[in-house]
């Protein structure tokens, strides 16, 4: 059996990945060795089979002995370790959740329900780096795969509503701490039947603006507010998250030399781990709505077309409904007042599953 080194399994994406791999019995298909940056020699996690103690993640000789390395350790680890392995002519496969190598010519961004052909060609061409994509991009492609596959998109915009988990575990904790602080401070007003709504409103905003409000991670309130900026600035006014929407999507579908224009605004909201997106899509031609819905539904096993009714939308098309599932609902599908070839849709997806862990465990199984 192939030897697979696993690094960064304890973090948020790593933990979700471990859960999924245990559920799907992946560990029966290879010999795992767990690496650690801080606890070498200690017991490896319980994954249902016997495994040796943890190995130092900076021990190059041990890494070189692996057939495949799967890392959720983050970009700095990739930056330091991948070149060292290449310098020693390591011939194994590197699977990675970090963005460091995504746009590299010698890397493939993996999302096999959408780009299995690109992946298969890369494997036969001897490409060794397989990298998980940006979560928003992967979730958009899972939702709209049918339109991309049928080459129907002239351009599109994605306006996002991104969850706290995209910024990390500490940010999720701080979001809940912000909610708790607001709730605690507001409770005397809420509990007093005589209080007026404007008293409640004043109480909440005063709490959010107070110097004691917890903002060490977000810098500003997110609970009861939003943050219209994700990641760092690019030179053209976009954020890096918005830039990824264009470059990564086109790389995933193998169209970097003839790219589909994609742009939008990426916004952080107070959901925990589901990213949502509202799309405006300029179609190449006027396709009837029922054909569009059929194409979307047929594209992969996880997308689910939600009827454009209030009942279905508020029940099935929300972070509250989708969190912890692999389903990617797409709804609010209709032609726009702008013209018959303008389509709008709304989609939700768990950014820790299809947005992070799932493409990694699937590429591991494909390589195995
Ligand atoms: N960059 C994403 C976000 C998460 O901040 O939501 C990782 O793809």
UniProtKB/TrEMBL annotation:
Keyword NADP (UniProt): yes
Protein residues bound to phosphate: 102, 244
Active-site residues, Swiss-Prot/TrEMBL: 135 (acyl-thioester intermediate), 275 (proton acceptor)
Keyword Oxidoreductase: yes
Positions of substrate binding: 162, 241, 268
InterPro entries membership: Asp-semialdehyde_DH_CS, Asp_ADH_gamma-type, Asp_semialdehyde_DH, NAD(P)-bd_dom_sf, Semialdehyde_DH_NAD-bd, Semialdhyde_DH_dimer_dom
Metabolic or biological pathway: Amino-acid biosynthesis; L-threonine biosynthesis; L-threonine from L-aspartate: step 2/5; Amino-acid biosynthesis; L-lysine biosynthesis via DAP pathway; (S)-tetrahydrodipicolinate from L-aspartate: step 2/4; Amino-acid biosynthesis; L-methionine biosynthesis via de novo pathway; L-homoserine from L-aspartate: step 2/3
Semialdehyde dehydrogenase NAD-binding domain residues: 3-122
Enzyme Commission code: 1.2.1.11
Record-level Gene Ontology MF annotations: aspartate-semialdehyde dehydrogenase activity; NAD binding; NADP binding; protein dimerization activity
HAMAP family: ASADH
Function: Catalyzes the NADPH-dependent formation of L-aspartate-semialdehyde (L-ASA) by the reductive dephosphorylation of L-aspartyl-4-phosphate.
Quaternary structure note: Homodimer.
Protein's name in the database: Aspartate-semialdehyde dehydrogenase
Organism: Desulfobacula toluolica (strain DSM 7467 / Tol2)
């Amino acid at each position: 059996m192939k030897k697979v080194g696993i690094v960064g399994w304890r973090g948020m994406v790593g933990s979700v990945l471990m859960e999924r791999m245990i559920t799907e019995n992946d560990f029966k298909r290879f010999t795992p060795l767990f690496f650690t940056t801080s606890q070498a020699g200690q017991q490896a996690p319980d994954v249902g089979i016997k495994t040796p103690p943890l190995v130092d993640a900076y021990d190059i000789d041990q890494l070189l002995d692996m057939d495949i390395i799967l890392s959720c350790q983050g970009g700095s680890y990739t930056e330091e370790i991948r070149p060292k392995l290449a310098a020693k002519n390591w011939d194994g496969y590197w699977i990675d959740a970090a963005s460091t190598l995504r746009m590299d010519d010698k890397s493939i961004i993996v999302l096999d329900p959408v780009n299995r052909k690109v992946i298969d060609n890369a494997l036969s061409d001897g490409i060794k780096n397989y990298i998980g994509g940006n979560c928003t991009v992967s979730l958009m492609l899972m939702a709209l795969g049918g339109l991309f596959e049928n080459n129907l998109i002239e351009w599109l915009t994605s306006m996002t509503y991104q969850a706290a988990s995209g910024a990390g575990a500490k940010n999720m904790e701080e979001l809940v701490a912000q909610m708790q602080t607001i709730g605690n401070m507001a409770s005397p007003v809420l509990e007093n039947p005589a209080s007026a709504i404007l008293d409640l409103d004043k109480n909440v905003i005063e709490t959010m603006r107070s110097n004691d409000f917890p903002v060490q991670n977000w810098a500003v309130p997110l609970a009861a507010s939003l943050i219209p900026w994700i990641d760092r600035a690019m030179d053209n006014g976009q954020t890096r998250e918005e830039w990824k929407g264009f470059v990564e999507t086109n790389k995933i579908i193998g169209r970097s030399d003839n790219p589909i224009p994609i742009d939008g605004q990426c916004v952080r909201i107070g959901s925990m781990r589901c990213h949502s997106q509202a799309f405006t899509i300029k179609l190449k031609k006027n396709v009837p709505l029922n054909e569009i819905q059929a194409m979307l539904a047929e594209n992969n096993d996880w997308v689910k077309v939600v009827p454009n009714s209030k009942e279905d939308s508020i029940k099935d098309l929300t972070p509250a409904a989708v969190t912890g599932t692999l389903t990617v609902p797409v709804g609010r599908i209709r032609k726009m007042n702008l013209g018959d070839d303008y389509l709008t849709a709304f989609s939700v997806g768990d950014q820790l599953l299809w947005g992070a862990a799932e493409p990694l465990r699937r590429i591991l199984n494909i390589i195995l």
